[in-house]
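User: I've been going back and forth on whether these two constructs are worth ordering. Before I decide, could you fold them both?

Assistant: Sure. I'll take them in the order you sent them. The first construct and its structure tokens:
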Amino acid sequence: MQYRILGQTVPVVELLLNNGESIYTQTGGMSYQTDGIEMNTNARGGIMKSLGRAFAGESMFMATYTARKDNAIIAFATTVPGNIKPIDITQMPNGIIVQKGSFLCAEPGVEMNITFTKRFGAGLFGGEGFILQKAQGRGMLFLEVDGDPIERDLMPGEVLKVDTGNVVAFESTVSYEIETVKGLGNIFLGGEGLFLTKLVGPGKVILQSQNFGDFVGRIIPFLPSNR
């Protein structure tokens, strides 16, 4: 399989598949394709995994696209302006933890499974939900990044505190928890929300410059109302 990323504002990842090669995504994720590609929609991994994906904010069902001839092309686009981050999971034997909404598409050898934060209560009230996804296996994974990607390689014990909506993914070696912003004045007047994601190295962290939840919150007051 070969791929290239096209566009800048709302980019697509365009994949060149030979006969028998496949790629899977959420239902409704395909942007365009050439002739010679077969689509199969199912609850990839079974009902329990599909329910887990629903809890993580993804589609219950996955669509697998398989080429039935050489040089077939299929493309998947981001849902909002941003970037696409390609990751070779084969190079990450411990896997990578992915924030909900970041998964775009992957080769069949990449398994996506739900995973929980170590502190259930903190994750539940942390603004992004307590269920994340762990990607591991072999093959290419493509993540959707809102805005621009920022990558950091954390040293052992190094701490990075991030707004929960700006986390895209991090290696499994990075510990993760939600902490509360300290001080009543900061909580009510600081404008940054109640929680921060605390990431502790070692390992790679991928962030996004755009917090789409904050963006939506800013434009809602300007939308027409029926009242």
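The second construct, handled the same way:
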Amino acid sequence: MQQKTYYPKAAEIQRDWVMVDAEGQNLGRLATRIAHVLLGKHKPTFTPGVEMGDFVIVVNAAKVTVTGTKTSSKLTSKVYNHHSGYPGGLKTISLRDQLDRYPDRALRDAVWGMLPHNRMGRAVLKRLKIYATPDHPHAVQNPQVLK
């Protein structure tokens, strides 16, 4: 008897909506759980190279925590760099300022670092919705709370 490899069809993929409350949770550990759900690794039908994941809604992104002692906290020592491509175009922002101004970007960058850096990773990242406050416009989708 020959066994066949199962490859899911596009119509067979069930995409659910999952909600995560980031208040008081560690940034890196939360990002790994979100990346796990976005890739669909929590499903029994997971197949590498196939977008099997769910939509993820993150609320209270501004209240995420980071590790570190009081003398060397990641809030001050971790910096994000961006270059415009022009001479002298390096922009640097600390994690503390990033969480104050754009709390969604810090979490999005952490999740992006845990996804594949290719076409599939970019498509998967589009299913991540991040909000700094507890309010979100996705109540119609009836999201399930991630344990």
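Notes on the second construct follow. The helical segments are 27-39, 74-77, 95-101, 103-112, 119-125. Residues 115 and 121 are 6 Å apart (CA to CA).
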